[in-house]
Amino acid sequence: xxxxxxxxxxxxxxxxxxxxxxxxxxxxxxxxxxxxxxxxxxxxxxxxxxxxxxxxxxxxxxxxxxxxxxxxxxxxxxxxxxxxxxxxxxxxxxxxxxxxxxxxxxxxxxxxxxxxxxxxxxxxxxxxxxxxxxxxxxxxxxxxxxxxxxxxxxxxxxxxxxxxxxxxxxxxxxxxxxxxxxxxxxxxxxxxxxxxxxxxxxxxxxxxxxxxxxxxxxxxxxxxxxxxxxxxxxxxxxxxxxxxxxxxxxxxxxxxxxxxxxxxxxxxxxxxxxxxxxxxxxxxxxxxxxxxxxxxxxxxxxxxxxxxxxxxxxxxxxxxxxxxxxxxxxxxxxxxxxxxxxxxxxxxxxxxxxxxxxxxxxxxxxx
Length: 367
Hints:
This protein is mainly β and 367 residues long. The chain is 9% helix and 42% strand.
């Protein structure tokens, strides 16, 4: 086992260390000045067992000091090894990292369609700076006429051990009288464990999961106002929420690029992506980008995703679950239609529809 790269990024109060190893490591921590710091990247999905991220207070670090990466090769292994290295930081800059992650995705064509009062669906055809195709899809929702509803398996309130395909969530909500007109996937979830969502989930005013989660979320308040925030920024908001679903990174804040997971492969590798955003006027934007099919669509980095959102007028936006979970449906005269081409890590299959924990259902004529 050896270290293949060490990169540093200075944040407001900490140093973000991104350490890569040549082989997968399941339990990794960092020892600095007698303190031990946990891997911040492999707690829940997405996993990258060769990339490990640590946040260490700047005050603990001095140039030339020895840091130790403590690791176990196997998930349940007992033997622990340590890899020492010297802290000799040459800091990367956010601007440079953002530029490296920017693939220059631009729209060539758009086809708009009114799905229901207050709901517009658009298919976007584009390409990156190298001429490779990128296709994405948006749902624009006017809160005075339409809203969001959190879809769950069976339209229920169980927080673990359940998952369902998005069309099954649509059907369950419709059977309970919800006027669903469109849908996209929502939060990350423990796909290989008990299926719990990674962040906050509120449905019809009931908190299903994540009431202490710091992750950002999009939510609908009792008065119909749309919010995109987190419980650290807005701790008193929870009792006011009717529906809410969380994501991972707040990619746009105050109309500017915000968290694009700099230095992390999850941020700069191009994947299928899903995002939710709000404009200053309260309008909702749901976005899905297809990827992993080179001849059709090459996906997006988080910088690409944020720039698309900014181009759509988002003041705030968050990254939702992507990859094989990214999916888009709208209601037509013959029922619900799948618009994108979901693709998993391996060679895509046209009919891949993953079971998930929750979804963002767009409703029309509902409070």
